[in-house]
Amino acid sequence: MNAQNAGALGVVIYTYNATSPFAMGGDDPNVAIRPVMISFQDGQDLVTSVVAESTSVIFTASAASEQATEVGNTMASFSSRGPNLNTYDIIKPDITAPGVKILAATTPAPMFSAQGETFKYLQGTSMSSPHIPVWLHCLRSQIVPGLKDKLNQL
Questions:
Q1: What are the backbone dihedrals phi and psi of residue 36, each rounded to the nearest 5 degrees, phi first?
Q2: 58 neighbors 50 (Cβ within 8 angstroms)
Q3: Which residue in 62, 100, 101, 81 sits closest to 20, CA to CA?
Q4: Are strands 11-14 and 35-38 parallel, antiparallel or unpaired?
Q5: Cα–Cα distance between 146 and 94 in angstroms, integer?
Q6: Are 78 and 124 in contact (CB under 8 A)?
Q7: Fewer Cβ in 10 A, N or C end of the chain?
Q8: pLDDT per residue of the chain (154 residues) written in tens, 0 to 9
């Protein structure tokens, strides 16, 4: 929002070193511009190039690639992925799961939303937590020596 308020037409964000770019988006109707994320190295190279005035960044209305369909089962941007950046001796969480845009069953007669839908995208801890036991069950069902004992300790 700050970039838009300052008159920006677009935003290029690059990741921390050794992390991967991810799809950025949102549904705030007040945000008219959309950001794009690139890798750390590409970001460093772009900054160097722009500072040297050998590259200009141009945003256009036409896509340079095909439109990507955003799908569910994604990690929330605010979810901890570890390690703890304040103290590297704490590596938490032990396990995590997607909790954003989880396709879930819902009542066809909800109190505050459209009637007649039996599935909708929901989010939150209650959507994330079922992924863990299913994931563990899938791992336990595989024949991997020693893995079952390790999983039972979790």
A1: -130, 140
A2: no
A3: 81
A4: parallel
A5: 18
A6: no
A7: C
A8: 788 888 887 888 888 877 777 766 666 778 888 778 888 888 898 888 888 887 776 666 665 555 555 566 677 776 666 667 777 777 666 777 777 778 888 888 877 777 777 887 788 777 777 878 887 777 776 656 666 666 666 6
CA 27 to chain centroid, in Å, comes to 14
* Token code pair at residue 86: 């304040």
Q: Report residue 51 as tokens.
A: 């500072």
- What separation in angstroms does the CA of 70 have from each of 24, 33, 38, 58, 100? 10, 17, 17, 24, 11
> With DSSP H G I counted as helix, E B as strand and the rest as coil, what are the percentages for the chain, rounded to 5?
25, 10, 65
- Are 47 and 19 within 8 A, CB to CB? no
Give the contacts of 4 (CB within 8 A, at least 6 positions apart). 31, 32, 33
Nearby residues of 126 by Cβ (< 8 Å), 6 or more positions away: none
